[in-house]
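Incident log, structure service

09:12 report received: a user says their structure output differs between two submissions of the same chain.
09:20 pulled the input from the user's history:
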Amino acid sequence: MLPPDDVYRGRASDGEVEILSEPAEVEQALDAARRQLRAQDLPEEWADTGKVFEDQYVTLYRDPVRFPGGKLGTYLRVAWSEKLGNGVVILPRLNNSFVLTRHFRHATRAWHWEIPRGFGERNAPSIQNAARELMEEIGVEPIALKHLGIINPDAGMTAHKADVYLADIARIGKLDQSEGISHAIVRQPRELLDMIAKGDISDGVTLSAISLALAQGYLFDGKGVPLGP
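09:34 re-ran on a clean worker, output below:
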């Protein structure tokens, strides 16, 4: 695995997008991006590189790059704030069934069936962040937490990673309605997969967590036989 500074320097091999640092190449990339913007009658400042935006949650960069094949230009990249750690995603399991929450998301302006997730505190262990997020969203402490893996929620745009956990719980507590959670449901594994097949679950993070649980044998049929491969 590459260390973070290698990712941001963009060491290039065949097929990679290289982040440029040599002044002459940076200027060539900016000129190429500006020409393209002028041709589309768009503002040339949209080619400006560096830190475009930053708040306590995310930082937006526009990098000067060399694309595979040699074309120069600029490319947007989103990173979570350096003050935050990996995100956490928690798949709650209650009596061999699974808990979904009905969550309103501002970005899509729509309701989604999904599972608890959130930002991680940088100096806290990931498993501690997972337990905290579970308490915040559905008001319960886990009996046990099993790490299922790490996902990149949107590798096409962000550098963010999230740790995925399976959480055994004894009940559902008070839901965090201030976060846009209206209610929760409990579904058996087959019902969960049926919801996915019908398109009732569209949240990518939730789909990833269920896929990890399925692939690792944590979803069972009514006879205790693991579903999936």
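09:41 both user submissions now match this output. Likely a transient worker issue. Closing.
09:42 reviewer note: The longest helix spans residues 23-39. The chain is about 25% helix and 35% strand.
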